[in-house]
Amino acid sequence: MTLAELPKIELHLHIEGAAPPEFVRRLAAEKHVDLSGIFRPDGAYAFHGFKHFLEVYEAATSVLRTPEDYARLTRAVLERSAEAGVIYTEAFLSPDFCGGGEVAAWRDYVAAIAEAAAQADAARGVAMRGVVTCIRHFGPERAKAAALCAAETAGEFVTGFGMGGDERMGRQSDFAWAFDCAREAGLGLTTHAGEWAGPESVAEALELGVARIGHGVRAVEDPALVDRLAERGVVLEVCPGSNLALGLYPAPEAHPIDRLRAAGVPVTVSTDDPPFFHTDMVREYALLNRAFGWEEDVFAELNRTAARAAFCDEALRARLL
Ligand code: ADE
Ligand code: ZN
């Protein structure tokens, strides 16, 4: 089987970050919004560094204004996922962008996205579940509102809660109320950590009681922490192409995913924000194959790890395993 044909499970995909630039340009034209400043002459997203990436991301997201916009986005994103051989993806969905944290509006967005996802599964065999995401640099109060939205819609489609955004703002523990609320609603928990802050941020994430960590790669700087991750079986949602595109590591061979796996940490692979980082799941696998010689057997192991760690019901998990 070629890398393109291998079935793939992805646990870390930001729905807005997966918006193809041509999709955002079309919406901007329909809504008469000038977004020319966020694109390069060749049409790709233009940004330099993480902070600017977040600004461009939020500018692109500003043209996604209705549940139908998100349904269209979901269809476009899952079409690309299916082309890359993805059979399951967990998408980060933000009440901050979908209805501004209002529960009633949020419900409409979730309904539209879930319906578009169900259609994509029926047509292309790619299942999706939603992980409601608060945005760290928007602060703990808005995170509470996001958690309440998550709790109100927890069910077959909304299965997890997480946090993205600028990890350099505040501490993980500032958001404990939101994570406790989501846990009580029965949601699986994950948070971005160890991407823009060091191992201490990953240790704080463990205190929050998450089952998974978004990125987590900088845990490698603390061998005792790596042992704790391995012992506890905390799953890392590693996004090598994202880390390289944002300059976290200078070259694929310098990326710590191979060392983390060798130390017994359960690692999985995802794209994060594929068109921003010029990646997809086939390119991620190809990068790992070239840098570390990973072959089909390792990718099968990653997918088993991802299927076990997926925030989904047991019937769907059985389909993935
Ligand atoms: N939101 C979208 N992509 C992100 C990333 N790589 N880190 C934190 N927040 C994000
Ligand atoms: Zn992310």
TrEMBL record:
Gene3D superfamilies tied to this protein: Metal-dependent hydrolases
Transcription regulation recorded as keyword: no
InterPro entries assigned to the protein according to its UniProt record, in alphabetical order: A_deaminase_dom (IPR001365), Ado/ade_deaminase (IPR006330), Metal_Hydrolase (IPR032466)
Entries under NCBIfam families matching the protein: aden_deam, PRK09358.1-3
GO molecular function per UniProt: deaminase activity; hydrolase activity, acting on carbon-nitrogen (but not peptide) bonds, in cyclic amidines; metal ion binding
Protein name: Adenosine deaminase
Cofactor(s) in the UniProt record: Zn(2+)
Domain named Adenosine deaminase: residues: 7-321
Class of this enzyme: hydrolase
EC number: 3.5.4.4
Species: Rhodosalinus halophilus
Protein family according to the UniProt entry: Belongs to the metallo-dependent hydrolases superfamily. Adenosine and AMP deaminases family.
Origin organism lineage: Bacteria, Pseudomonadati, Pseudomonadota, Alphaproteobacteria, Rhodobacterales
Keyword annotations of the record: Hydrolase, Metal-binding, Zinc
